[in-house]
Write a structure and sequence with these properties.
By secondary structure, the protein is α/β, with parallel strands linked by helices. The chain has a single domain, classed as Vaccinia Virus protein VP39 (Rossmann fold), CATH 3.40.50.150. A seven-stranded mixed sheet has the order 3-2-1-4-5-7-6, sandwiched between helices.
Length: 239
């Protein structure tokens, strides 16, 4: 992740996706928790316009994040037991964390994320899609569950938030991923080791076309699924 976060098409495309679906729900100079931040590939960019705090349970990830994004303060901790006070941040971003084997109860983890959001603040979740798909990449990165769009709605609503949007993403990758899963059956290999060069440029272009659709429409499924919710109440500045 640390090696390819600036160059890999998926990370670049996902940052663009989040800029379109999550950032509009943030107040000016929001304090954002990047929960399960990894090396910063999907959340550190928010520090360009907002205050970001990164948190991850893996010390190596925190160390690499600090080297790549030294301006962002970091915490080592579990998203299911956040070392933060109630209502202490304006928003939470959580990308490909609830799928991990370390998360025993995704709904309880989301409730903990919502606990630290101020009234009126935003929550954004993005996770692997297609429940029954089991890929070599999943085995390599310890993914034990995938989600449907409706699962994302339930996670957000079940935490007491209003679901603003829920949708699939990277829908064009579902058929090739299903074929690849059959070919790679039993193996463990990361997608981050490939999809560069011409292939990456083609996939990035397809993702850009899909984002134009997502600007005004939702997708019923995708190789990723995401949801944005808002915690009930009004923030101190009225946003």
């Amino acid at each position: 992740m640390a090696r390819v976060e600036r160059s890999h098409w998926w990370y670049r495309s996902t940052r663009e996706l989040l800029a379109g679906v999550f950032v509009p729900h943030l107040p000016a100079r929001a304090l954002v928790l990047d929960a399960g931040c990894g090396t910063g590939a999907t959340g550190a960019w928010l520090a360009e316009r907002h205050a970001v705090v990164g948190l991850d349970a893996e010390p190596l990830a925190v160390e690499l994040y600090a080297g790549l994004h030294p301006a962002v303060p970091l915490l080592t901790g579990d998203v299911s037991r956040l070392p933060l006070r109630d209502a202490s941040v304006d928003a939470v971003l959580c990308v490909t964390v609830l799928c991990h084997q370390a998360i025993l109860d995704p709904q309880a983890a989301v409730a903990e994320l919502v606990r630290v959001i101020r009234p009126g603040g935003a929550l954004c979740l993005l996770e692997p899609g297609v429940r029954r798909l089991r890929r070599a990449h999943d085995r390599a990165v310890h993914v034990v569950r995938r989600f449907a769009v409706e699962d994302m709605r339930r996670l957000v609503a079940g935490s007491g938030c209003e679901v603003v949007r829920a949708s699939g993403a990277y829908s064009f990758l579902v058929p090739p991923a299903a074929v690849k899963a059959v070919i790679e059956r039993g193996r463990a290999a990361s997608d981050l080791d490939g999809q560069s060069g011409a292939v990456g440029r083609v996939l990035a272009g397809m993702a850009a076309v899909e984002r134009r659709w997502l600007a005004a429409h939702d997708l019923p499924a995708g190789l990723s699924v995401w949801a944005v919710g808002v915690k009930p109440g009004v923030g101190p500045s009225g946003w």
